[in-house]
Amino acid sequence: MQKRIWTFAAVFFTVLCFAGNSLAADVAKIGILDQQSVLQKSSAGKAAQAQIKGEFSAKEKELQKRGSEIQELEKQLQREAMVMSQEKRDDKSRELKIKKVELDDLSKKYTRELKQLEKQLINRIQKDIESLTNEMGKKEGYLLIISKPAVLYFPTSIDVTDQIIQQYN
After folding, report:
1. CA distance 34 to 117
2. Per mean pLDDT, which range of 28-37, 62-71, 76-85 is the poorest?
3. pTM of the complete model
4. Contact 134, 145 (CB under 8 A)
5. How far is 40 from 48, CA to CA, in rounded Å?
6. At how many degrees (to 10) do helices 43-80 and 86-140 cross?
7. Residue 63, class by beta-carbon neighbours within 10 Å (0-12 exposed, 13-18 middle, 19+ buried)?
8. Which residues, 6+ apart, have CB-to-CB distance to 169 below 8 Å?
9. Separation of alpha carbons 80 and 91, rounded Å
């Protein structure tokens, strides 16, 4: 019986010693970063969006212009189909099909170019965000900074997004 009391006392004091050490340890500083928000709210992100919109509108105007040309050719073909020879009608029809295929190819090309531009701009901004986050994490003693889409719940007090946006601007 006395042996059990001594064993219990030893275990109790051991646990008490370790609990005291763990309570005295520094609290791990963790931050959450919403990269999408940084892309939307930062000045560089807004400039990238404006550049993409400018490119898109210029390319869209070109496509609309070519589309209206094709519509005019279709109307012309329908009006003059009765008075044209079969050979001339076939030539105009072939020309119209070629223009439609060219328009479709141009549309696909512009889409690829815009996606490539968007990817380049976003990658550049993300590299800047990463370096700012690393710098802030080291400077302010963060143990961990996690990207928001990977987190289901967090208190807003550990969100560092606004700090990164301020540093980035």
Report:
1. 22
2. 76-85
3. 0.67
4. no
5. 9
6. 170
7. middle
8. 42, 43, 44
9. 13
